[in-house]
From TrEMBL:
Lineage: Bacteria, Bacillati, Actinomycetota, Actinomycetes, Micrococcales
Listed GO MF terms: 2-oxo-4-hydroxy-4-carboxy-5-ureidoimidazoline decarboxylase activity
Catalytic activity, reaction form: 5-hydroxy-2-oxo-4-ureido-2,5-dihydro-1H-imidazole-5-carboxylate + H(+) = (S)-allantoin + CO2
Any one biological process term the GO annotation gives: purine nucleobase metabolic process
Region Disordered, residue ranges: 65-91
Enzyme Commission number(s): 4.1.1.97
InterPro entries with a match to the protein in the record: OHCU_decarboxylase, OHCU_decarboxylase-2, OHCU_decarboxylase_sf
Protein name: 2-oxo-4-hydroxy-4-carboxy-5-ureidoimidazoline decarboxylase
Organism, scientific name: Pseudoclavibacter terrae
Length: 165
């Protein structure tokens, strides 16, 4: 979408578009209400500011819309197309790596009571598995901070891929 097209969207459509980046109401409202943007870089700057303000509850809320690593996204979720593309490399991983990721997902969820979230785009299945195994050793506060950082990275990457000048 062109930045000029985003600027012209109605409020509800602008919020719906922002929800495909991340389903956090404060974020989607901030982007929609800050229009018009003079450039994509101005939009990205505002998105980064809004993402930096997320609290723990908002991060947890956003996880509800993300599929587990190695699983197909629910097509009814606003960011499903992004998730499918981002996890494309994982879908083609060797069976033993997929099994280890699935087992790591179970251990992670038992440990932290949330899904494992990682920026999958640009990472190999082996790199994702290594991240998963490493992060299982984090304490709760450290891991929540890592999750928030990964979510911000995912959100801004989706914005970069979705909006052009």
């Amino acid at each position: 979408m062109l930045i000029s097209e985003y600027n012209r969207l109605g409020e509800a459509s602008a919020i719906d578009f922002a929800a495909t980046l991340v389903a956090i109401p404060s974020f989607t409202a901030a982007l929609a209400s800050s229009r018009p943007f003079a450039s994509k870089s101005e939009l990205r700057e505002r998105a980064a500011e809004a993402a930096a303000a997320w609290d723990d509850e908002e991060v947890e809320l956003a996880l509800a819309g993300h599929p587990r690593i190695g699983e197909r996204p629910d097509r009814s979720e606003p960011g499903a197309e992004h998730s499918a593309r981002e996890q494309g490399a994982v879908q083609g991983a060797e069976a033993d790596v997929l099994a280890r990721i699935a087992e790591g997902n179970r251990r992670y969820e038992a440990r932290f009571d949330r899904i494992f979230l990682v920026r999958a785009a640009g990472r190999t299945p082996a790199e994702i598995l290594a991240q998963l195994e490493e992060r299982l050793g984090n304490d709760d506060a450290t891991e929540l901070a890592v999750v928030a950082s990964e979510l911000r990275d995912i959100t801004l990457l989706r914005l970069d891929e979705s909006v052009t000048e």
